[in-house]
## 1
Amino acid sequence: MATAVGSVGADAGDSVGGGAGSSTEYERAFDAVVAADERIEPRDWMPDAYRATLVRQIAQHAHSEIIGMQPEANWITRAPSLRRKAILMAKVQDEAGHGLYLYSAAETLGTGRDELLDKLHSGRQKYSSIFNYPTLTWADVGAIGWLVDGAAITNQVPLCRCSYGPYARAMVRICKEESFHQRQGYELLLALSRGTPEQHAMAQDAVDRWWWPSLMMFGPPDGESQHSAQSMAWKIKRHSNDELRRRFVDICVPQAESLGLTLPDPDLRWNEEQGHHDFGPIDWTEFRDVLKGNGPCNEERLTRRRHAHEEGAWVRESAAAYAAKHTTGETGAIRP
Ligand SMILES: [Fe+2]
Ligand SMILES: [Fe+2]
């Protein structure tokens, strides 16, 4: 919500240079907006650390969307039917769109897209480690939709109520599209699961490989999560990593059953007392290793991204030249 902070900001702005008192007034206004569950908007005052946290999170999210196009795009030319190909192309395009909404949201915080892409390409900013795993069979497209997009939704639905307005609004649209992605993955796996024994085995194998990395998508356990407490205090984040992970497991168990597939965890069972499923230990060594850059596809994903960026330079230049010409034309300075 712009008004509260904006108006106090203007008053406080009159006394800029007046010492610590004015910044306290800004802070109080910011805290009040967050406490009232209203939205902080781009021109409102915000603490530097809040801005930096948002840029880091939104950038990482945007990078994940565009890097995430690669593992599935790998199967577009080999989709088993025209219908499947059209669906997959639409999905991969959606992910590009998500990247664009999110880079735009980051730009409202004063960080340009060029800078963020440069940080991605030079390895100074991360993307979700899940995309460093390979897509070995067609069933992986289904497992990604069902599990990876499913985990993304579980993570992102609460972000629709994030305290930063542009991020929250981008998430509303993204979540609607993610829900289509999740359903297409489920439907694809269901077709395979009900198909020939070979197709069923292919679906099961994909789920076996994607299940644990999907649980890792929620980030480290609460005790080790560096930024969680502050992000929750700022209402950027609404639930802890472990809470969201458990919610995701609870959602997946009955869905796996109706798919006729098994989740690869012998410790998975309903805990009557807690009203949730218990699940086995996650291999955090693998998580940290992939994060460090040693996953099966880290190098391949980044190299391909850098290459695509260089290849696309002429498109960016042409678009910028066209926009500049168009703007000048409108002022009447240049006659056609
Ligand atoms: Fe997405
Ligand atoms: Fe998606």
## 2
Amino acid sequence: MNWLSKPVRGLLLDITGVLYNSGEGDGVAIASSIEAVKRLQASDLKIRFVSNESSNTRAKLAAKLGRLGFEIQEEQLFTPAPAAASYLRQHGLRPHLLVHPGVQDEFAEFDMTDPNCVVMGDAEREFTYQNLNTAFQLLIKLDRPQLITLGYGKYYMETDGLKLDVGAYAKALEYACDIQSLVIGKPNAEYFSAAVADMQLTIDETVMIGDDILSDIGGAQKAGLRGVQVRTGKWRPQWENHPIVTPDGIVDNLAEAVNLLLAQNAA
Ligand SMILES: [Mg+2]
């Protein structure tokens, strides 16, 4: 496969749909991925877990992954909320939040009394008509409406089926307000580059593995990375001939990618 035609020193791994499928409670681990992550953690490869997960703080996400059987340090996790908080800080912004209650702690430092932007994550049950309309009313009255989204996915897979993701709701507000979101998270190229820089590697030495052909594979390729599609999570058979994105590799699951990669590195 051409994703192995150049040396690989680092991996960026998507979490949901690659390590586990979310759903009731902690969701369900993809069994072969537990062993695969152990083998990677024991290898010379550097790893960062690059997720658009926006319903948990990093600490809570690391703890949840631990309960599912994955030993992952909080420092190895890249999630959009801390990146968004640092953007708000740099630009002196006061957010109105339309996010999942589980991630609100990441924004505890901000004054929200007179908001000048809206931050939207995967709010799940908080995506009510009332909450969307409040965000709309706030944006439409601003001179320069700014909508910041934590990721921009269309949908994701849960144990009981596909679920609408934040991008679908963001589109509604973009349409109503004639604006474009600032996306913090995948598929934003800067988000991938920050994770690569954190490993002190180059784009050329790094491969992204994910289940979302646009956000993970297409996004990684736009950032100059190789992108490998897994046939787990939200993967759909028709993506094998996707009109926009051709992955650099397609594997059944993370375990197959790890087998191929470690065999190649040992040769
Ligand atoms: Mg995923």
## 3
Amino acid sequence: MASRAFSTALRATARAAVSRPSVTIRPMSVLANTMKRTAVKSTISIQARSMKTLNFGGSEETVYERSDVPKEKLLDTFKNDTIAVLGYGPQGRGQALNLRDNGVNVIIGQREGKTYQQAVEEGWVPGKNLFPVLDAVEKGTVVMNLLSDAFQKEIWPQMKPLLTPGKTLYFSHGFSIVYKDQTNIEAPEGVDVILVAPKGSGFTVRRLFQEGRGINSSFAVHKDASGHAKERTIALGIGIGSGYMYETTFEKEVYSDLFGERGVLMGAIQGLFQAQYEVLRANGHSPSEAFNETVEEATQSLYPLIGEKGMDWMYSNCSTTAMRGALDWWKPFHDASKPVFEELYKSVRDGTETARSLDRNSQPDYREKLEEELREIRESEIWRTGKTVRQLRPENAGKN
Ligand SMILES: NC(=O)c1ccc[n+]([C@@H]2O[C@H](COP(=O)([O-])OP(=O)(O)OC[C@H]3O[C@@H](n4cnc5c(N)ncnc54)[C@H](OP(=O)(O)O)[C@@H]3O)[C@@H](O)[C@H]2O)c1
């Protein structure tokens, strides 16, 4: 995902270019000078419907932003639709609330229980715009399947007959469609099958939208029965609160997503933190010292700098001693971890990760089992130390 600062700079440049009437006939060299002046190392060209083709590190990609789908266009696109969001989990909640705030006609399909109660508390009315899952499928013309990936498989035989020609089936993950050998999910004829996958949790989808920001999302069209699937996918992606959107395929989305979350985004980061902490502790460093040198400095000081302007920017804001060491050691870490990443990609691609996920997350007590493993992490020394360190942040003084 592009850093916020980077994408903000791109947007600013794009806006500046759009506001000049002569931009479409300007030679690229002039545009390149514009880019230099704004210190953005990208070329930009403005195309029909104002989508933008940008140079991402040497490769051209077309991206779509909110300016491509103004509110009137969003509402016009879905003026005859009922958008049924299935599941009020993190993604369902975030996407449904953002669509509702954007003025789109949304209903929710959610089983009764704690999550259903939350939906009621957040203004969804049983029988009016909050229904049992299959009732919502029946009523919806755009069915946004944001149930857990494991439950998508379970409910499919009952859902499929309700997806009549002309409807749209939407996912936020390529999982169910790509691994159809394991899920048996194949949409009926005459149904558009599309995807918008926010690159972050549903919680962030909502929070960034409320802050006037947006999470980046990929989008893909698997089946275009209507002839308008791409246009509608882009509109829906903006409607749920995306920042910018880039095109992918269902396959590429699911491979990169399963790979990324098992890797640097979640799995690898805990593995690296834990290993470094253990070595520091084994060498006599206190928990406070080990945690500060491993996690607190990373999340509070250095990683935000990576987000702002990249790795070299973070390095260059550290001492020359730190920089020398980092420049010497990133390659051994790279070489040691690359075979693990290669093994992981293979395990994603051959369906091993999917099979494990479907099996484990379809057991009746899967939530309790996941919670048990999270508890192990929470109660490990590193994260117990982290809790105390967080309480000591000046901004948390006096809070629990
Ligand atoms: N989380 C992310 O970062 C992320 C990002 C992009 C895309 N996605 C995709 O978005 C989709 C939804 O994910 P999520 O993050 O919202 O959380 P999730 O935990 O995968 O799904 C939660 C929803 O599924 C329902 N559900 C689970 N088991 C059920 C069952 N046996 N019967 C009825 N309903 C059941 C939950 O209802 P209850 O609360 O009642 O159990 C809740 O509404 C998935 O396809 C996921 O891959 C997730």
## 4
Amino acid sequence: MWSFQLCCHLALFLAGIILHICTDTVKGLNVCVSGSATSCEECLLLHPSCAWCSQENFGRGRPFMSQCDLSQNLLNRGCKARYIENPRSTSSILKNKPLSSKGSLSAQYDIIQIQPQKISLSLRPGHQTSFEVQVRPVEDYPVDLYYLMDLSLSMKDDLDTIRNLGTKLAEEMKKLTSNFRLGFGTFVDKNLSPFSYTAPKYKENPCNGYKPFPNCVPSFGFRNHLSLTDKVDRFNEEVQKQVVSRNRDAPEGGFDAILQAAVCKERIGWRKEAYHLLVFATDDVPHLALDGKLAGLVQPNDGQCHLNEENEYSASTKMDYPSLALLGEKLAENNIFLIFAVTKRHYVLYKNFTALIPGTTVEILDQSSKNIIQLIVAAYNNIRSKVELSVWDQPEDLSLAFTATCQDGKPLSGLSKCAELKIGDTVSFNISAAAHSCPSPGTKKSFTIKPVGFKDSLEISVDYQCDCNCTRFSQANSNHCTNAGTYTCGTCNCDLGYHGTNCECSEDEVGSLNLAACREAKGKQVCSGRGECSCNYCRCYESEFGKIYGMYCECDDFSCARHKGILCSVPSILKCVLVRECMVQKNPGFRDCIECLLFNTGKFADNHTCQRMCKDKIIVTETLVCAASIDAMTVLLAVVGSILLVGIVLLAMWKLVITIHDRREFARFQSARSRARYEMASNPLYKHPISTHSVETTFQMYSKSYNGGVH
Ligand SMILES: *[C@@H]1O[C@H](CO)[C@@H](O)[C@H](O)[C@H]1NC(C)=O
Ligand SMILES: *[C@@H]1O[C@H](CO)[C@@H](O)[C@H](O)[C@H]1NC(C)=O
Ligand SMILES: *[C@@H]1O[C@H](CO)[C@@H](O)[C@H](O)[C@H]1NC(C)=O
Ligand SMILES: *[C@@H]1O[C@H](CO)[C@@H](O)[C@H](O)[C@H]1NC(C)=O
Ligand SMILES: [Ca+2]
């Protein structure tokens, strides 16, 4: 009977612990409170949902109550709404001109393809805001097309094919735009060994002695023959004049030429209000950055325009080839769509380049450029049917998420582009922005969002909501802070040498002595490491698990489990709670002290005199004997006893089972043995030593045939 009762207690005890854990995790405090922020700014940084109450005296009682909490909790705890600091991220539109629908017909400089044009974001770190951007590629937008051609020897037949390209291309492009300009440039390679022939006999004519084609021009980096013009016949004239060149290695210096064509915007004549198409026709692979080292060119490409009076790339033999990254950057900066028109053999390589350089496409060029017009028209249509947003100068601590809504009206999250558009379709992008950190106060940043290849862009300026409004009303030497500190956002920042909630203690008075007043004993942590020593008493922190209290924050209501108010744990933790029960019963005169000291309730707590009134009395409480409650030893013995008992019962059961099992086994063994004895006579392993075989004696001697076969 005794053990049965203990068992029940034990079960209840365990259930209690489990219940305790469950309810506590549900009730757990939020990140704002447990973050123990000491200023409004710190609080705002903890989490976007945290708010700060700057109301005077809010949360300055005992125990320590956080001024940083979810704004709903602050309201519930009595903070007035106007004292709650909780900035939100916002976006506001500063410039919002409507989209244009037609390009060439409207006034030249007012074509708008993105809306809005200017936005300002005000971001609270961690809290995101969103804005919408609409893009509509206008109909009949002007087009600038620059034809950049490889003039190495293998392109001789191509040169013949494009002699009348200008006229034909203009005819085709007229169907697409009423405003078309064409330009023309060529390239070979750097005129340096080992890329080109530099021996004296090749100086004037690198084809010297080359039977199939004995006359050609020396190689060169890049030449601009015809800046962009609407007089397309001039294109034909320039092409007629060209003579191919010859150089030594297979890769050509085309990327030098692309870079120059992109960055020399005045010389090439790119218009601001036009699509910029750069057609790059070649039949070989390009040289890339660092190849120049073969010829001793150690200076990296500077990405600047170096066209001289003769319209020739003058730094060709001074600088290395450009890198893909530089090329991509310069093309994007100048809104240039690059179209690689390359032979089938090198299609894959250039296809790979398009993945690395945004805004480029690749098309297969016939052996002698016969399909060049279809190719250009196809590439142009391909470009026109796409809208892709690119972000420029994105601040590092800012993250952007895009959701595209293309022509079918379905939002596609994570996508910043739309394809297969028809002219005049409008697409919209929902962009959410969130900051991750607070830069130094007053920092403003800005960045740009731009559809690839468009001159239109959206400018976005960003400022940060990291400050609290209440900080502006800080008072130095405030009388809220005993004239010894700055009163800011409802708290006191004490001057050097002062502390306490209201800076009411000065260093001289306090010294090490008063810190000692916050220690339970010498060598122990101040306020048991669970509170802060303010003047000469502990303000205990709030904990996620429950209440921390006591003179030195040494007590709590979660370190031990209870059943019906009876503690079930080791004596040192029993102390606090047992004391409460006993004191109230036996010594009602101390009730107020007990209430205020341990639980911060009652009248002394209300007028903050607890510390003074009850200073000596707590010592008495610790020596009191608790007769009413169960002795800790009994609980311990009960627990140990029941554990032992359960162990013994289990052991006994085990023993019983084993014994029964053994008996059965033994019986089986016995019966098997007796059976074995009985069957010994026919042991299957036993073989009688004598065996008898009978031989057929009447075999026929002559039935054996001659060749040994048996019939
Ligand atoms: C801070 O003050 C500004 C103007 O003084 C006001 O617009 C803004 O709403 C205030 N912010 C908060 C969080 O109270
Ligand atoms: C953008 O998308 C978010 C959800 O991802 C939505 O809350 C917000 O209202 C949208 N903004 C606009 C301007 O459509
Ligand atoms: C192109 O890229 C693919 C995949 O990355 C690679 O397997 C292939 O070798 C590349 N081709 C060339 C010619 O670089
Ligand atoms: C605080 O309140 C208690 C009980 O009402 C009273 O006895 C005590 O004098 C008060 N102390 C002060 C400083 O007002
Ligand atoms: Ca070459």
